[in-house]
Design brief:
Blueprint lengths: L1 E9 L3 E4 L1 H11 L4 E7 L4 E7 L3 H14 L20 H10 L3 E7 L2 E2 L5 E7 L5 E10 L1
Antiparallel strand pairs: 1-8, 2-7, 3-5, 3-8, 4-7, 5-6
Length: 140
């Protein structure tokens, strides 16, 4: 069992890939076969495994989530009570609840068994910059 905590800076809503850092962790850990668990330690961002080849995928995902859950100052969101941290806060919690904060990825021959076009991302849901912590845990 090996683990590490990554610190990832974000600068607003969007996807922030850290696949290379996860693969480096596996190399440094001397991983063979096992399971890499990735966990984000926050309630207003989430994790995704998503396409990393065409940036239009990220643009479309961001647009979809903005339409699905607009800021709390949007007239359609008048039912939201939690607004003390700004109009992006409660929508960020909702988006995180709809996605995932933990991902399990199989590992073989020291590498995460991701598909050809897959990458591991933090999905930031807040407007202002944040420093996010991601726990990588390798079990074999």
């Amino acid at each position: 069992m090996t683990q590490a905590v990554l610190s990832i800076s974000t600068s607003g809503p969007g996807l922030y890939e850290f696949t290379d850092r996860a693969q480096a962790f596996l190399r440094e850990a001397g991983a063979g076969e096992g399971l890499l668990t990735v966990f984000v330690r926050h309630t207003s961002c989430s994790l995704l495994i998503q396409e990393n080849a065409d940036p239009d995928v990220q643009r479309d995902l961001n647009a979809f989530f903005r339409r699905l859950v607009p800021p709390s100052n949007d007239p359609s969101m008048g039912w939201i009570v939690h607004t003390t941290e700004g109009p992006d806060d409660m929508p960020a919690h909702i988006k995180a609840a709809l996605t995932q904060v933990s991902i399990g990825i199989p590992v073989a021959n020291g590498r995460a068994l991701l598909g050809t076009w897959q990458g591991i991302y933090i999905f930031e849901h807040r407007d202002r910059p944040h420093r996010r912590e991601v726990v990588l845990h390798l079990s074999s």
